Amino acid sequence: MTVSPVGREVARVDGRLKVTGAARYSGDYPATNMSYAHVVTSTVARGTIRSIDTAAALAAPGVLRVYAAGDGRLRLYPLAPEFSFFGENYIPLQDTTVRYYGQIIAVVVAESVEQARDAAALITVAYDAQPPRASLADGPREPSGPTSSGELSSVTVLAPGVASIDEALAASEVVVEADFEQPVQHHAAMEPHTVLAEWDGDRVTVHAGAQMPTPFTILLGQRLGVLPQQVRLIGRYVGGGFGARVIVWSEAPLAAAAARELGRPVKLALTREQMFTLVGHRPHLTQRVRLGASRNGVLSAISHESVAERPAAGGWNMLPGESTSDTLYNTPNLRIKPQWVILDMPGSWAMRAPDEAPGAFALETAMDELAVATGVDPVELRLRNYATVSPSTGRPWSSKHLDECYRDGARRFGWSARSARPRARVDGEWLFGTGMSSAAYPAARQAASVRIRLLDDDTAVVSTGTSDLGTGAWTMVAVAGADALGLPLERVTPEIGDSALPPGAPAVGSGATHSTVPAVVAAARDTIDALKQLAVTHSGSPWHGANAKDLRYKQGRLHGNGRSMTFGKLLRALGSRGVDATASEPAGAPSGYTFHTFGAHFCEVRVNRFTREIRVTRFTTVVDAGRIINARAARSQIVGGVIFGISGALLEENHLERDTGRLAASTLADYLVPVNADIPDIDVHLLDRPDPHLTGPLGEDGGEVGTRSLGARGLGEIGTVGSAAAVGNAVFNATGIRIRKLPITLDKLL
Amino acid sequence: MRAYTFTQARSVREAHSRAGAHTAFLAGGTTLVDLMKLDVMAPAHVVDINGLPLRGVTLDRRGLHVGALERMSDVAANPTVRRHYPVIARALELSASAQLRNMASIGGNLLQRTRCGYFRDVATACNKREPGSGCSALTGWNRGHAILGTSDDCAATHPSDLAVALVVLGTDVHLASARGTRTVPLDGFYTLPGTTPHVENVLRPGELITGITVPRSAWAAHSTYLKIRDRQSYEFALASAAVALEMRGDTITKARIAVGGMGTRPWRLPAVERALTGHRATEATYEAAVRHAASGSKTLEHNAFKPALLRRTLVRALTALEEQR
Lengths: 750, 325
Prior knowledge:
The complex is a heterodimer of chains A (750) and B (325).
Chain A: H1 15-19, E1 35-41, E2 47-53, H2 55-59, E3 63-68, E4 97-98, E5 104-110, H3 113-120, E6 124-129, E7 141-143, E8 155-157, H4 165-170, E9 174-182, E10 194-200, E11 203-207, H5 213-224, E12 231-234, H6 251-262, E13 266-269, H7 272-278, E14 285-293, E15 299-311, E16 334-343, H8 356-374, H9 378-384, H10 402-413, E17 425-427, E18 430-442, E19 448-455, E20 460-463, H11 473-485, E21 492-495, H12 512-537, E22 552-554, E23 557-560, E24 563-566, H13 567-574, E25 578-585, E26 596-608, E27 614-624, H14 631-650, E28 682-686, H15 723-735
Parallel strand pairs in A: 1-13, 11-12, 15-16, 20-21, 27-28
Antiparallel strand pairs in A: 1-5, 2-4, 2-6, 3-5, 7-16, 8-16, 9-14, 10-11, 10-13, 14-15, 17-18, 18-26, 19-20, 19-25, 22-23, 23-24, 26-27
Chain B: E1 5-8, H1 12-18, E2 23-26, H2 32-37, E3 45-48, E4 57-60, E5 63-67, H3 72-77, H4 79-84, H5 86-93, H6 98-103, H7 106-110, H8 161-168, E6 172-177, E7 180-185, H9 186-189, E8 208-215, E9 223-228, E10 239-248, E11 251-260, E12 267-268, H10 270-276, H11 283-289, H12 306-324
Parallel strand pairs in B: 1-3, 2-3
Antiparallel strand pairs in B: 4-5, 5-8, 6-7, 6-8, 9-10, 10-11, 11-12
Helix pairs in contact in B: 5-8, 10-11
């Protein structure tokens, strides 16, 4: 009897390859006659290039080409209007305009990496510079709509007879009003963006990390002026995405265009410094949250306004009230109003829980302030305002067990031992405090196609063009395939990270797993049908001429008419290598419901009573993400997400220089992320309650196909939502000091 | 990185013969190679001095002798150092990362360059890197910058933890050049930036640090090093303090205090030392003594917190030292 691996502690199927160095990342691929590119970036934030002197670089040893802004030697094209959101709004090197500090203005290609880099240092540039727009406070504000539905992204819900959110607030017994600020944050993936482009005639193969392999070929194809089917993207192993590998930035088009012009393979790796300006960041933003409530903490109004940076070169449209203030609490009056300020700074993009993490920091800190103002315990306050339907749409959730997350988390953490009074617990020179917060993240299913092949050696290959950013997608595909086919995990071979495979789920929006699984189930059903058809139609088959309806598939074997045989044995008997089928599942989910993953965070910090360093000492997170596919990978994702949150709460900051538009940090020595010593053991509990409305094509009963993997929602980002607020709320409980400007560093507590 | 010649010296004399205006000595390489990659330093000639006999950690009547080429990790692990000079071991262990400590030398540590982000970015103005070009830090991001010993031309912080500890202990630095050898106190080795921030010490062209001597003292064994930073390891100090006390009963008879992360060089605080001397070792004494610790400091837009942090770091270090006793 084969036991389904779903929900168990499954080690990564690619773990051994990674720890032995056998897994090939983009930069690890060789090519015959390789050349190497190095990019040169601008050192002003706004203006035009008067001249670029490339003579010394061209004369340097090993240099093959120097392409400079405006020289027209590399042919690149705009994105089609319907795709323009997925890229910066200019074409690299096609003009002499400088849009931000750190923009690519030249590319050097040489016989070696070192020669390209050394020659790049010889290029000198003269600018006609203008003062950059570099301050969120100074610029004119613009509304951040419209959304895809054509509506402005503002939300207003008012109770009957209430004229405005201000009126609702004015009528409230208790009002909390708080202003928040968050600096530029960076994805800072461990693997710098690296691309190898190699042409064969009019087709190009690109090795690069991509969160969306199929869209990558469309976007890169548009930049190159070729069709998507002329572009093949291979990115089997990726050293982190976090949103920085969703769209096509400049490096891949430039490498591919240079390879085309030069007639040789080109490898281009960004340096760590260049990663800070060329592959996006989480935008700088300010938020104002106003909560109106009764004296016993029942909310009557939520107002959530934001002003976020919008780079002139294009970028992410910050909507921090979405899935936070429009989701978490029951309120009769709701106002969400996002705005932008156009700044001359590097292109921004979604970064792990792009809107939800900053939005939840503001809302969940304000909720803690409401708990203090009303004297209601923070957990109890959230239960008193528990939403059973979406406050903005009125729709119920497909599945919501957030109340259980609060109660389980409080019990595991020992919340009841807490004193609401700040500075109540002192141990030696350390002040201890605890805080909590809620989390929600949308669970939108994306379209995905999966091909399953049953082979004559009794193994199965499950293929889909999704991407594993380090998240565990390789293992997820194997687990889902093993469950659907009733095979032991080791007899299932996953195939992902290649645009030549059936179009897979994009690894964005915490969606890869719960988008892929239904398509695996559908493909298993279709492949089993194809196997039965082969069995009854092939003249060499013992079931030749039988009715396919009389055959049953179970755990790798066909049964029927008194016979039983493994699919491998059947295939061998027929001289067939294998049988396969491909199935696709559409995006979307049953209408009439709202889909979210939920969670609750509990955090303990200690703060030094002299010097105010903040150290996180305990952290508990309970998550309701529907069905859990791989308990180990799921826990690891939550741990990583929480570390992201702690990091954003306490460390991460890139200062935008007002006068120059330069981002001050460009190394991991200056842009701080935590070291191991900064992170305690993180206690993660997963409720593992399958979502009854996300059961996919076969419902809960798949007949012969395993369906234990259905009913999942995503969990890649939920750990980052709200965790910074839990840290900040704990800091308040420890010190009595409320910090609303991230990161919460010791200087703010002195 | 620019092209350069590379040679290995087998003796101090040979190293001197190779010395010149465009020559850099290579020990651990953790600063030099890093800055050469960034084009901040571009020597025409690099002379590897790792073959020189500048090794050894020994203790005698005069004190602790450490060869300039001893690795930070080896000195930190040395039982003699740990027993008699705990402040040195502590400062070393709180520096950099294990990998860097395995490579970096004691002489090189004393000569490491500032971590100012503008010094390290050749696209920006920096008087230390390029005299006369200006100082981007004064109007830029200067949260980590110095508040003591700064000038209108430079506010870069001296980065070494070890130097702060050694200054407290009255360490001598031994230097050698083609003209002979000399010894200078470490406290006088570093110069203030003034109008010449590119000059950081009294080393003459071609001169080498051959070793250090840390004198014997009663306070050396009663000393500690405290380092304050945003994350728990692998970061330079926002503030640090090396404190050493000589006690009679509960009374402080002699105090030695230096701070890091605050000055353009390791910064002694003689006024705080005087204010502690003759008083009982209590938190109230410390609070009173550090009241004027940051007098004369000059803050910038983002480091206005540093005077307060300096005072609190000192009180915490003194309290911790007293609790160790």
